[in-house]
Task: structure prediction
Amino acid sequence: MNSKNNITEVLKIAALLILLTWVFFIIKPFILVVFWAIILAVTLFPLYNRLVKKMGATKKKLTTILFALVVLSLFMVPAFFITSSAVESTKEIADQLRSDSFQLPQPEERVKEWPVIGEKLYANWSEASKDIKKYSIAHKEVILEQGAKLLSGFKGFIGAFIMFIISFMIAVVFMYNSDKGYNTSLAFLNKLVGKDSDEIVHMSRDTIRSVVKGIILVALIQAGLAYVGFKLIDLPAAEVFAFLVLIVAIIQLPVLLIMIPAIILVFSYADTTPAIIFTIYCVLVGLLDNLLKPMLLGKGLKTPMIVILIGTIGGMLLHGIIGLFLGPVVLAVMHRMYLYWVTTPAENL
Result:
């Protein structure tokens, strides 16, 4: 009798595993979109909830629609200007190349003195400024390769932006049904961990918001300040450079990677004094995250900041941008379970 029961249990588990695997492959194309929707919902809910309370519960549907339209416009307008600026700059350069009117300014001699890249940069810059067509033909393989990468990156940006819009619309639905979502997550975690389910939900929520403040907000501040500097110095394609600063800051690379090409470009056309002031400004903006991140990342959390930071970087390396949020949440939960394990007497475990 026991052997029959064991066979039945094994068959039940096998059937359940097959069903779960089947479901996973069905929903796999939508997992990333739903994860982003959850992150957006958690991040924007305090603002949304405050607006609903001011407008009144009876106008919740109208408030939700207005909220969605306002937030979408905040993202659509900058995206439109960035895209139009990139297209316009590319078109302008292409027209100048067709009419043989495109010309790079000659580099100044002090470019040679720049550390590491000075000599090579001066040689290439000088060659290109003398005859851009000849230089393009001589280096066509590199130009075509880099152009293909740039085009691929632009296509990736368009795809990511469309995914973001879809995720945001799903996030709006999640926020509208926040009470049901909260109760469902509690019920699910109660089955897994028991009495600490509410703490895990709150910790996950607070960790996501902390990462948004410590990484996304800091990246937005750096990109905004960089854009102001780019416009004041009349940097060509300032919107594109500012967008690149935003992306680099989000993925936790030094912002100076984008600032250095901008500085080099400015030195090619601006006077020495404004160019030096611009350089100092760019360096300050590039180092700003070292001041802001410790102030915002992990603030108000019981989880140590080092755990959040390791989770953020490790999660991004493992899962990409979405890992910025998944990594710290997973580590925060494991940190909480570790503390529970080491502080609870063995007889109570």
